[in-house]
Amino acid sequence: MDLGIKGKRALVCASSKGLGKGCAEALAEAGVDLIMNARGSEALEASADAIRAAHGVNVTTVAVDVTTPEGREQVLAACGDGVDILVNNAGGPPPGMWTDWDRSDFIKALDANMLTPIEYIKALVPGMMDRGWGRVVNITSQSVKAPLAVLGLSNSARAGLTGYVAGTSRQVAGAGVTINNLLPGIHATDRAVSLDAGVSEREGISPAEARAKREATIPAGRYGTSEEFGAMCAFLCSQHAGFIVGQNILLDGGGVNATL
């Protein structure tokens, strides 16, 4: 399928690895030029070089921490007059129990997983509206639909972003700009390795056993891949998705057991 976005320009945050990289690769395959961001320059440059070689698109890299004002300023400076596509993404806060977290922990989670995406939306969507076309995809979590007790910081911050998008998306849709959220379940990324390592340590089992135990709870019987996640992101950014507004789309292998 021709996604109809060849020659457009996208900012993809946290795109050196994992789901962000999957989204960057899928957009590049569709002919989209990229601004890629991550904190670590080595992994970022390696991913950018691979995407340039594979797809022949222009790729600009910005190695900064986007949860800081200085980092956001550098990324927005790289965007110049704006972008057509924004993919908001950031690693989730650490797991724990409700008794573990204080105010500073919540502020960090809000900065990374709610306030930074909102800052980018506010900075870049007006230009999209002026041009009459734009796509925003926020990578959140299945915990927005079905909270996970050990991910209370993530539950809280991502739910806040979801509420913001619910209202904002309806206000900008008439200008040709869509905003939607992708809700990943467990995917085969560094985040999954970290979570499995935690289970392994707590329960005294091997990482492989921890993964198998988690996979057994997923109806699809496996972890998702960054490639299939990226393909869904690219579709939401395509010319075919203009009537999808303010939606929360699960990619969880059926893990959330809900009718709606």
Low-confidence stretches: none
Q: How would you sum up the major sheet?
A: 7 strands, parallel
- Structural class by helix and strand composition: alpha/beta
Topology as a string of helices (H) and strands (E): EHEHEHEHEHEHHHE
Distance between the termini: 28 Å
Percent range for helical residues? Answer: 40-55%
How would you sum up the global shape?
globular
Description:
The structure is a single chain. The chain is 47% helix and 14% strand. With 260 residues, it is α/β, with parallel strands linked by helices. The protein has a 7-stranded parallel beta sheet with strand order 3-2-1-4-5-6-7, with helices on both faces. The model has no long low-confidence stretch (mean pLDDT 95).
Overview in brief:
By secondary structure, the protein is of the alpha/beta class.
What layout of secondary structure does this protein have?
Elements: E1 9-12, H1 18-29, E2 33-38, H2 41-55, E3 59-63, H3 69-79, E4 85-88, H4 103-131, E5 134-139, H5 152-172, E6 177-184, H6 190-203, H7 207-215, H8 226-236, E7 248-251
Helix pairs in contact: 1-2, 1-8, 4-5, 6-7
Which key features would you list for this structure?
260 residues; 8 helices; 47% helix
